[in-house]
Structure formats: C-alpha cells, structure tokens
Amino acid sequence: MVKKEMIAMLLAGGQGSRLGVLTAKVAKPAVAFGGKYRIIDFPLSNCINSGVDTVGVLTQYQPLRLNTHIGIGIPWDLDRNVGGVSILPPYEKSTNSEWYTGTANAIYQNLDYIQGFNPDYVLILSGDHIYKMDYEVMLDFHKAKKADVTIAAMPVPMEEANRFGIVVTDSENEIREFEEKPEKPSSNLASMGIYIFSWPVLKDALIQLSGQPNCDFGKHIIPYCHSKGQRLFAYEYNGYWKDVGTLNSYWEANMELIDIIPEFNLYEEFWKIYTNSANLPPQYISEQGVVDRCIISNGTEVYGEVHSSVLGAGITIGKGSVVRDSIIMRNVTIGENCVIEKAIIAENTVIGNNVVIGIGAEVPNQLKPNIYSGGLVTIGENSRIPSDVQIGKNTAISGETFNEDYRDGMLAGGETLIKAGDWR
Fold first, then answer.
1. DSSP H or E stretch at residue 175
2. Residue 226 class from Cβ within 10 Å (0-12 exposed, 13-18 middle, 19+ buried)?
C-alpha cells in the first residue's frame, strides 16, 4: 500500500449561486480570475507549493470546464504515477446512488480514495477562495500541538463575524467554543474552511455522522469532534484571503490586482500560481489603442481604450470603444464606439457597435437585489448584445438578445434580461 503523510481533499462542487449568471453554466471554482487564471488555480498552486502532491478534487455542479481545465494536472506538476490529482465526482454504487449532499458527505463518499493512501493527515480545502498559504507550516503547527483537528482561522471585522464559523480560543490557541454563523459572535476569529484532521479522527467522525442529512464540516463534524473531547486548535492566518462568493467581492478582488502596490501579488517568484494556459499569440495594442493600469492576457487585441480593467485572453476591443473598471473574460468581442463602465462580461460574449453599458443612476435590481448590486452590470457567458443599445446599472443579461428586447433601445437600471438557450 502507498503511504502518504498528508493528502488534500479539495471541495469544488459548489454552484456559487450568489455569482448570478456567471455560474449559470459553470462551477464557481472554474470561474475566471485575474485574466488568465481560474479560481481553483489558487488552492491547487498552494498544494504543490506546500509539497502536497496528492489532491482529490470533488466536483458536482456543472463540472465539465473544471475537469477540462485540471486534466491530468500537468500545469501544477500533479501528473504523478502515485498520487497526483484525481477528479472525484459522485458515482453510481451497487446499493444506492446519491449526490454529494454536504461538504462532509462528499468526503465520506470518498473514504476508499483516502484509505488508498493511508495518510497520517487529511487537509480539507475549499475550491473558491483566493489566497496563498503554506499548508506545510500549518501541518507543523498541527503536529507541535499534538492536535486532532486544526482549523485555519483569521480575524475579521466584528460586524461581519456572523457570516462565518467563529472560534473562541485560549492562550494556547486551543479551541474552547465553535459557533457556526452566530447571531451574536463572541469572537472575531473566523474559520477559513481549511482544516487538517488526523486521519483516524476524521474517519471516525465521518462514519459516525454518515446518516446525518446534508452533513457539513462547520455544522456537524467540528462540533462532533469537540463534543468527543478531541484536541481542536486554531491556526491563525494573517495574509490575504478573499472569499469571492459575491459579484461585488469578485469584482473587488480582481480590481485589487491592478493597484499600484497590489495587496495580492501574482508576480512573486517564490510562490507561483500555476494554470492551464492556452497557446496564444501575444497581446496587441494598436496605434490608436490606449491602455493604463490593466492586466491584459495573451491573444487580446486593443484598438480602443482600456482603463483600470482586467482582461482575459483572446479579447477584441474595437476602435473608439472605451472600457473602464471592468472584468472582461476570455474570447469576448466588443464592437466599435462602445462605452463600458463597471461591468463583468463572461466568456464568449459578443457586443455590437455603439453599445453603452453602465449608464444612469443606481436602482436596486428588481429580481435579485442582493445579488446584482454595487452598480455592476453582469453579462453571462455566450451572450450577445445587439448594436445601438444602452444598459443601466445593477442589471444582468444572459443569452442571445435582440434589439426588440430593449424597450426604446434601453435596458433600464435594475432590470434583468435572461434568454433561454445558447445562440451558438
């Protein structure tokens, strides 16, 4: 039997419904980030940079692009004869078949995979956060404390603490209390959803709670381990960590990459972020093209102006068009004489000529005010915007749209336009 000291289980099955039309056809960890990357590249790169060479990626919702992106793990040096990266979707069993119903249930359904490596420790990760962390340092902490469970935790503003699992620790960092999204938090030390378990402890908890519906780490496994008198410790992390689960936090995290001194640096030599990059020609800026404070990926051609934006690969920006404070994902075509302000435009979208996006006053979105907010315009992938239309703020568009879909050539602020079917 192969023996690994620590293997990672990366939970990447989430739909990410708070990202609206961006995740209508793709799992949240496969959403583009920072021009050339996808969100899952960050935990995968952390694994290989930390010396963790065995990673199970648990997929479920719309997994096709994620599977294609990861492949056999070559970009992350995870194409190994022993270990490496494995995609672990739910599968048919002889007695009963079921979807993953919670984070812990997903791990429980893959006990055989973990057992095959007979690890001393299991690292549980989420596939939808942007951060750099050396898991080896966290493992050293776990061993030094003789812990059964170590939870990575970081201080958050007290007013936001009720959105997280909160830990209360003593002077030795041992966890005395664990509260999942408490109404009145008694501490501001938030769980990051990153756990190291000693394997026998995790195995026992998963088996004992296997009948629990929607079995989850924060709600069930951690409280169970605590109630059993296991040694739980908090590993405090003070670096950059961003949950890009909402459109506003996703937009902000991308915009922070182009700050003069970015808080999160993609260019560090000693902690590289790896990805599966297409072989594309270099970017091209025409004689009339103007670019400032941008990330621009390969194969992108700029004939207009781009300011303070993050551009993926294979984009074309037509003559006379101006793009500001926006995220444009790969293979988007923007026509001539357009004005685009504070938009998120997903992959393979085509925008006609003379289109104005992000115009007028901020009005709450009528359909989903808690998702489409912050003055953003969000356009889902494979969409088509006809020429000569104007689009207001806090709007969402998805699918092939035509001029007759826009009353008097306008989609007013706060409106949503979702067309069924793909146009290509």
1. strand 175-180
2. middle
